[in-house]
Design brief:
7 strands, about 50% helix, about 15% strand, elongated, 2 domains, YojJ-like (1
Length: about 280
Amino acid sequence: MPTFKLNFHDIISQGIPVLVLDLLLTALLFYVIFSLLRGTKAIPLLKGLGVLFVFAVLSQKLNLKFFGGLLQYLLGALVIAVPVLFQPELRRALEHLGKKNVFERWLPFGNLQSKDSLEAVAKAAEDLAAAYIGGLIVIEKETKLKEIEETGCKLDALVTDALITQIFQKNTPLHDGAILIRGTRMVAAGCILPLTEDSHLVLELGTRHRAGLGLSEQSDALVVIISEERGTISVAKGEQLRKFNQSGQLLKYLTSEFGEKREPPFSPTGFFNRWMGQ
């Protein structure tokens, strides 16, 4: 069974610069863990582990051998139990971490979206909302959604508002799924998206909104959601929903997300994705 040792004298003797770096990296690690697991059932568990950690430190400093030994065995058992009990949450967090583009904030290397494509998506979404016809439009970014593409009917079509509107017409074969847009092409329709497991969502949100949020939890894609019941437009990004009520708002938002990006002749992230077969 692993033992827990925390020697404060050794920590302080590292020197101030190393100590500061150590504390910053530790804080960053906890921040990343909480960000990835936020809104899941694993958060109460992490809080409980934090309490046990504090008691373990206190028992070590007070030399409480029996109580400290009991906590060490308990923590050792939890190391084995946690991956079993929270496998879905941990899998989703690791997938999100592995697919996240750490260079995106500093390097403007995104999927190139033409102005015509963005205008077509915005116009089709507004037309569908006005007619109270539901729809799901996934706009791929850095994370390649090959698995999502495989769930639908593969296409290779130019993005136009007429085609998007036609696909989502009621009683057509592909109207229930999502459209996947990669760059300036519509690559698949009728795609199935993963549903979010967030239990804090309002009951008014239907399956389309839960599917859009579910994909945004696992990738950096933008998902345009048109509500059939309320005739509203929302966009799921980064586990958050944004609503657009006025005409032209969606196009401005899409332009701010894609319009200023330009694909360079050589992109390190793009090269890595191609090398990995994505």
